[in-house]
């Protein structure tokens, strides 16, 4: 491709993205294709000769778009969002245009220093204390793995990276509602999933601190080495908040590492009304949240904060000759702050987003999402055929259809599985699921950048109509 063509198609693609985003709610949200349908339309061997870019874009429209699930559609209420925004897209485009690799200060001083600045902006925005320093990772899963690896190093006097874990059996504690990234991290870190102790939760799906203490005490008696507690500020299932202050106190008392996973909810800590939560967030050794979920910085962008920079670096630093520079100790070299060597210039898109929106506008967007979540919650609560299954703290509503007089749990689970499938099959909205106390729950997250009250009204009408149809069919049987 020549420069002239690049410019032509570049404008074309910007137009396409703008059009796509403004019409994202017109597409069936969950892709309607069958397994293999996309592959069957694409040659299995690569082309030897150059192909015309118009033809490539044509195939993009006809083959790829139908196989997309539209995460940017305001009708996407599933999982947690992966919001993008115009300034973020421009930042991402510029990052790929520059193509710099940011593993050392020398490999792009601006990238390193901007990363220091934007992570500190984010720290201030969410109210984390100034004894934390930040680094950008791809995902919360990576950040949590880094935290567990540093905990392992610290608890083994920095021996385990050299000699292996050896005779000690380390134990990690997290609630039964913790995200599966913690299971994965203990597996990868060589701790073993058998040594991830799942602590039961209370009626609000938050970890029972009394049972955490009991588990640590009984492990000590049994000869295990308690290592780390992972607490959630906003679980994936129901957005439950573990008892952070109590857990931190227990960690201090027993000399354990404390990591907080606030992947989704952390973005809302920019709001004054969540000051009580953001103040708790500093009660840990490491903290992660995902601006790529709810701060309109497109995937991937996870902000990881640590108090003990030295231990983090001791965990990851490796210095072959070609990576030794004169200014080694004067500057940050982010290759020593995580697993990979090569790193993308992710700070740029965050800089574009924070400056282009301004913190006040970011707050207004998140505040509106929470108001919309409560509005939806009130509709569900006031309909006698529905039941709310978990306290609503922000904008995740877990609910189920529970028709009057139908109380058999396995039947209720069955009809809710069916209801979710029927709703999602319409293509008009996309919601996801979880299990809470063995009850099948439908999850509705109201956090898309372009979400309006009308979208939610339409979604609720669809849910009610689909439920009525399901109840009617059951009665006719
Ligand atoms: N922690 C929580 C609470 C989550 O909800 C998620 C994903 O939704 C994760 C961790 C994993 O996030 P990531 O995809 O950034 O690894």
Q: How would you explain this protein's 3D organization?
A:
It is built from 16 helices and 11 strands. The protein folds into 3 domains: 3-68, dopa decarboxylase, N-terminal domain (Up-down Bundle); 93-357, Type I PLP-dependent aspartate aminotransferase-like (Major domain) (Aspartate Aminotransferase, domain 2, 3-Layer(aba) Sandwich), CATH 3.40.640; 359-475, Aspartate Aminotransferase, domain 1 (Alpha-Beta Complex). 44% of the residues lie in helices and 12% in strands. The strands form 2 sheets. It has a 7-stranded mixed sheet, with helices on both faces. A 4-stranded antiparallel sheet has the order 8-9-11-10. Strand 5 (257-261), helix 10 (275-280) and strand 6 (286-289) form a beta-alpha-beta unit. Pyridoxal-5'-phosphate is lined by residues 80, 139-141, 179, 181, 232, 234-236, 261, 263-264, 290, 302.
Total number of helices:
16
Residue share in β-strands: 5-15%
| Low-confidence parts | none
**Fourth-level CATH superfamily of the largest domain:** Type I PLP-dependent aspartate aminotransferase-like (Major domain)
Radius of gyration: 24 Å
Q: How many domains make up the coordinates?
A: 3
* Oligomeric state of the chains in view: single chain
Outline the biggest β-sheet: 7 strands, mixed
Compact overview of the structure:
By secondary structure, the chain is of the alpha/beta class. Helices cover 44% and strands 12% of the residues.
